[in-house]
Design goal:
Catalyzes the phosphorylation of the position 2 hydroxy group of 4-diphosphocytidyl-2C-methyl-D-erythritol. InterPro entries: GHMP_kinase_C_dom, GHMP_kinase_C_sf, GHMP_kinase_N_dom, IspE, Ribosomal_Su5_D2-typ_SF, Ribsml_uS5_D2-typ_fold_subgr. The chain has 269 residues and is α+β, with helices and mostly antiparallel strands. The chain is 28% helix and 29% strand. The strands form three sheets. A four-stranded mixed β-sheet has the order 1-4-6-5. Strands 2-3-7-8 form a four-stranded antiparallel β-sheet. The structure holds 4-diphosphocytidyl-2-C-methyl-D-erythritol and adenosine-5'-triphosphate (ATP).
């Protein structure tokens, strides 16, 4: 069986509180976009994991796909061994949630392939153990998220009338480091209300709290946002803890921008 985990962007992101468990409370809107990995699993005599495409840092044994397999294996010991192949296309350490998507899709793949009959609620509980962003990818529709990102509520938000550009400058921003740079604070506005307004009103209101610290450490990332606005984006922001920056353009009106040759650029028209 093969599935195609997609990425997410954050529209507004407020870090509101540091918790005793070391995590932070936040509020954000997750929006899925079609930049995809490919995740294939076939039954095999022993558990094997391999990846191609963008190299995934760290040990293969720590890959979130394997963590998802082991998590389900604890509760379903009858699961056979798998040969798992991940083709990595979603930039890593980019704030696009690629690792979390792989983990959530691995849960879904095993559930479907072996007809475990897991409810959405059960999948959400497993996903929350794998990463703060993971539960969103079980729902995979526009969502308002709170808690450490795992409390999600589907939202009516349809941006299919716009085109998107995602620009990844190749900088890997460590999520834990980015949270440490922030002083949590109460949001200055009601995120859900702003998201309900036309995209053209977001520019001066909708804020990603990570931008200040990440742009200060990596000015090239802030420059991308300026270039996207200069090219006609109606809204631009860094996604998650960076380093990818998103631009929302009027439908099919994405300007040609000459990016540094090392940047990876995705357009969704
Ligand atoms: C920044 C976001 O991308 C916004 O969507 C997410 O909150 C990050 O979620 P994620 O990558 O799934 O994060 P996790 O793998 O759960 O956590 C990575 C590290 O980020 C920090 N972390 C993460 C989420 C959160 N709400 N508070 C935190 O402080 C913790 O130091 C944690 O060890
Ligand atoms: N399948 C995977 N794909 C990508 N990274 C993985 C995977 N499994 C484990 N990781 C580890 O997770 C780290 C961060 O990955 P990811 O790409 O999800 O970060 P991110 O883009 O910052 O996402 P987020 O928005 O969730 O913070 C990587 O450095 C890598 O070591």
């Amino acid at each position: 069986m093969i599935l195609f985990p997609n990425c997410k962007i954050n529209l507004g992101l407020h870090v509101t509180n540091k918790r005793p468990d070391g995590f932070h409370d936040l509020e954000t809107v997750f929006y899925p976009l079609p930049v995809n990995d490919a995740l294939e699993a076939i039954t095999h005599s022993e558990l094997q994991f391999e990846s191609s495409g963008i190299p995934v840092p760290g040990n293969a044994a720590d890959n979130l796909c394997l963590k998802a397999f082991h998590l389900l294996k604890q509760d379903f010991p009858q699961l056979p061994a798998l040969h798992i192949h991940l083709h990595k296309h979603i930039p890593i350490g980019a704030g696009l949630g690629g690792g979390s998507a792989d983990a959530a899709f691995m849960l879904r793949l095993i559930d479907q392939k072996f007809q475990l009959g897991l409810t959405e609620a059960a999948l959400l509980v497993y996903a929350a153990q794998l990463g703060s962003d993971c539960p969103f990818f079980i729902i995979n529709k526009p969502c308002f998220a709170t808690g450490r990102g795992e409390i999600i509520e589907p939202l009516t938000l349809d941006l299919s009338g716009y085109s998107f550009m995602l620009v990844h400058p190749g900088i890997h921003v460590n999520t834990g480091w980015a949270f440490k740079q922030l002083t949590p604070k109460a949001p200055a506005y009601a995120l859900k209300e702003i998201i309900g307004q036309p995209v053209t009103t977001w520019k001066d209101v909708l804020v990603n709290d990570f931008e200040e610290a990440v742009f200060a450490a990596h000015p090239a990332i802030g420059k991308i946002k300026e270039q996207l606005y200069a090219a006609g984006a109606v809204y631009s922001a860094m996604s998650g803890s960076g380093s990818a920056v998103l631009g929302i353009f009027p439908k099919n009106k994405i300007a040609d921008i000459l990016w540094d040759a090392s940047y990876r650029v995705f357009t969704i028209r």
